[in-house]
Amino acid sequence: MSFDLNQLIKGKVWKFGDSIETDAINPYYRYPTMEELKQHTMEAYRPEFPKEVKPGDIVVAGRNFGCGSSRPGLVLREVGVAAVVVESVARLFLRNNISRAIPIFMAPGITQIVNDGEVLEVDYPAGIVRNSRTGASVTMRKFPPMIEQIFKAGGLPEFARARYEAELAKQAGSAR
Amino acid sequence: MAMTMAEKLFSRHNLDGTPVVAGDILTARIDGAMCHYHAAEPMMEAAEQAGFKGGLPRVWDPDRVFVLLDHHQPALSQSLADSNAAVRREVERLGITCFHDAEPGISHQMMADYGLMRPGELVVGNDSHTISYGAINSGGIGITRADMFYVLLFGELWFQVPTSLKVVLNGRQPNYPIAKDIILYLAGLYGDDFAGSMSIEYSGTLVPQLSIDSRMCLSAHGVEVGAKLALFPYDDKTREFMKSRTDKPYEPLVADADAKYEKEIVLNVDDMPFMVAKPHQFGNVGPVSESAGVKINQAQIGSCANGRFEDIEIAARLLDGRRVAKGVRLLISPASQQVYLQCLKAGLIEKLVAAGAHVITPGCGICQPKVGFISDKEVCITATTRNFKGRKGSIHADIYLGGPLTVVAAAVAGKIMDPREVFSEL
Known about the structure:
The complex is a heterodimer of chains A (176) and B (426).
Chain A lengths: L8 E7 L6 H4 L8 H7 L8 H4 L5 E4 L12 H5 L4 E4 L4 H9 L4 E3 L3 H4 L5 E5 L4 E4 L5 E3 L5 H9 L2 H20 L1
Parallel strand pairs in A: 1-2, 2-3, 3-4
Antiparallel strand pairs in A: 1-5, 5-6, 6-7
Helix pairs in contact in A: 7-8
Chain B lengths: L4 H9 L11 E5 L2 E4 L4 H10 L15 E4 L9 H17 L3 E3 L6 H7 L8 E4 L13 E4 L2 H10 L1 E5 L3 E7 L8 H12 L8 E5 L8 H9 L8 E3 L4 H8 L19 E6 L6 E3 L7 E3 L10 E4 L1 H4 L2 H11 L9 E4 L4 H9 L2 H8 L2 E2 L19 E5 L14 E5 L1 H10 L5 H4 L4
Parallel strand pairs in B: 2-3, 2-5, 3-4, 5-6, 8-9, 8-11, 9-10, 14-15, 14-17, 15-16, 17-18
Antiparallel strand pairs in B: 1-7, 12-13, 12-18
Helix pairs in contact in B: 2-5, 6-7, 10-12, 10-13
């Protein structure tokens, strides 16, 4: 699924602490199906989250978000989370979001400018994350062009297919 | 230009053929791709997602893809049996030559047992603990399943060259393993992301004394402190380890003397106490005395961090003639069949069983629970990889991490104690 980084995202904030790990996000070994996961994601930190999260909400967290395993956070998209905005992110979680084209933004200082339940605006083209109520904002890190292309393609498997088909077409062309 | 091990690794594997330095983004040529139990996903689901009808159309090099069904062997449920069967079909269809199927064990340990990664190589795996290959000077990097899809098709992947962190370990190796205590100590001091996205390079006077087993524990735990790579220098121990495992040539990574490091950490292990991570984060660390007296229900030794010979040897040595405390479940799981066999031949298993330990089939089962779930309010101390909430089942249980010595002391005492107070011979 292609993700347009240039779209503005605005949503209600669910705020979490530091080092939220993939066992909490994706406890697949207790809940092996997506339907079960949706009912339990993040409950280790906030039991009400899976029950009350609404499509369009934004997850804000501290440093080292998604530490732990290489498991993806697809379930957050499945429950409707529109974006994850964090102080810093563990490298495998970041790679997962890039390779699945799921919006994640690194905005140092984010936890200082927004409280749980407030509305946050994510403006990637401007490189800014803003608290709608207070107007306070922090800058986010922009992705290198290659990563932006992966988001545009809809993820790394889609990116791979485009390359594979281009190679096939080239081979067919040269065979003729 | 002076380079770190990481810069050399990526320069050597840069598809463009030019040298790269920390911060550069490149497409790298992959030497080996390790797919474990989630192998089915890159092969099938991601293929479907990308619109490849009939699955992944090829693998770039069937001899460079290693599939090891580790987490779910033997299958503990119908759905896992079905997913294992799906992987078998895909492996056959794609002509993958290296498939460890009907063999229980942890993929990373089997990769080492069978010499499937070598010093100086860039080996990726769709498991976070792939970083453990750094123990033998191999560039092991954990990637995601969707990344693996790209690797399987093209044998290439994008990376950013990491900055490097020099960790200097000085001191003397006692006659028991201390690798877990070292990494916990560092995580306690500097936080659970002190090496975030960096390459750790180990050096110092302790390093030549560290066994390959201990190096693997330290390298595996690189991911618990956020690292991309956790590399040990190539030395006589690495050469000896590789000698019986591969006859293919390899070129070790050697850092230049004046290479540039983002930071440097020095630790002298001689005065280091036994360390314990308390619930529920890897960086929530204190000396064992801080947790002394906590009653335990379960104790465990195993995983890609602590399921090796030296971890099991110290348990057997200290349990010889002793008993596990009444009501405590001590689970010990060798990391692979090869490790299990080594333990059997050394007479360790008999001592463990006589003392009342459960010996569990090699694999990931006791770490990411397939066996040995714990209940609400129970307490587990474990020499495995992680102590996150729910990692052993209930999110209302407490998990402590410690080295094998600290775990076996707790198993005998029935509560967390300084091993020196439990075992007078130490």
